[in-house]
Amino acid sequence: MHIVMAGASGLIGTSMSAAFRNAGHSVVTLVRRPPASAAEVRWDPAAGVLDPGALSGADAVVNLSGAGIGDRPWTRRRVEELFSSRLGPTRTLVQAMARADTPPATFISQSGSNYYGDAGNTVLREDAPAGSGTLAQICMEWEQAALAAPAGVRVVTPRTGVVFSPSGGALGKLLPLLRLGLGGPFGNGRQFWPWVTLPDVSAAFLFLLGSPVSGPVNLAAPGQADVNTIVAALAHALHRPAVLRVPAPVLRTVMPGLADELLLSSQRMEPAVLTAAGFTWQHGHLADAARWVAGKTSPH
Question: Which of 194, 174, 195, 145 lies closest to 251, judged by CA?
C-alpha cells in the first residue's frame, strides 16, 4: 500500500511511519522544508499549497497534523494556533484530493477523545454527542474538515485518547515525577482518562487502513480507568509511591483553561467500533500498559 502522511515527525507519527514501513507499505511524508529524500514531498498547509500529484495514486492519506495541546499556555494566540494547525492541513489535503487524477481510497484524519468534552461517568461510544469547550470545538471542526473529502474516499476520524509512551507524550511531565516518588493524581482523580499505548495507536491505524470501517473511531484501550487507578498502576509498575495529589485549584492557577479541559475533564470512552471490527490490543489492560511504560516488558 502506498501511504502519504502529514504530521509524521511527532511522537505518534514517527512510531506510525515506522510501523507502516515494517508492515511492508511505502510511506511518503509531507514536510514544510526542502525534501531530504524521495520519500518526502514539500507542502505549505498554512497557505493551502500542495501539489495534487503528491496524492494521485496513493492508497491512503494519514493526517496527524496539529500543534501540541498541552505544550504551551493557552493564550488567545495559542488557541488560534491549535485550531489553524489542524484545520489548515486537513483542508489543504481535502482540496488536493479533489484535484488529484486518482484520489486516495482512504483518508484517516486524526481527532481526539476531547470531542466528548467533560462527560463524567457516562460511557461514550462513537454515537455519543459532542461536548462543549475549546477542545471539543477543535475536534468537531477538525472532523468536519476531513468529512469534506471527495465522494468515494473512505474517511475515518480516530478519536485518540491519552497516549502512553515511556519517552514523553501525554505522560511526559508526570512520569519523571512518578519515577522520583513525587507524582500523584490530578484533582480528585475520579475523572476517566481514555488511555492507549503508542504501539496500539500505530497498530489501530494499520488495522483501519485495511478494514472497511468509516466515520468516528474511539481509539482507546478497552480497560477503562480513572486517574487514581492509572496513577496507582504506573506507580506500582515503577515501585514508587504516588501520594502527592495535585489539587484542582492549583492546576487551574498554573494551567488556566488547559487544566479543566486536558487534565480534569472525564471521558469514559469505549472502543466499540474497533472491538466490533475485531481489533486486538497489545496492551488492553492497564497493568500491562503500565509495565510497558515502566520498561518492565520488551517493546514490540
Answer: 174
Q: Are 214 and 158 in contact (CB under 8 A)?
A: no
Of 15, 1, 22, 29, give the one whose Cα is nearest residue 201.
15
Residue 297 forms part of a structural domain: no
Please, what is the end-to-end C-alpha distance for the chain in angstroms? 22
Query: Are 29 and 78 within 8 A, CB to CB?
Result: no
Question: Could you tell me which of 121, 119, 120, 211 has the C-alpha nearest to residue 158?
Answer: 211
Given a cut of 50, whether residue 299 has pLDDT beyond it is no
| Amino acid sitting at position 233 | A
Q: How far apart are the C-alpha atoms of 224 and 56, rounded to whole Å?
A: 40
**Residues 274, 207: Cα–Cα separation, whole Å:** 9
DSSP assignment, residue 47?
G
Angle, nearest 10°, between helix axes 134-146 and 76-99? 10
Domain count, the chain: 1
CATH number of the domain that residue 116 is part of:
3.40.50.720
Is residue 235 domain-resident?
no
Distance, in Å, from the CA atom of 171 to the CA atom of 262, rounded to the nearest integer, reads: 12
- Kindly state whether residue 251 falls inside one of the protein's structural domains: no
pLDDT at 300: 45
Quick: pLDDT tens for 208-255. Answer: 999 999 999 999 999 999 999 999 999 999 998 887 788 888 888 877
Helices 286-293, 227-238: inter-axial angle, 10-degree rounding: 50
Q: Judge whether 166 and 117 are in contact, CB under 8 Å.
A: no
pLDDT band at 39 (very low <50, low <70, confident <90, very high): very high
For residue 204, the enclosing domain spans 2-164+195-223+267-281
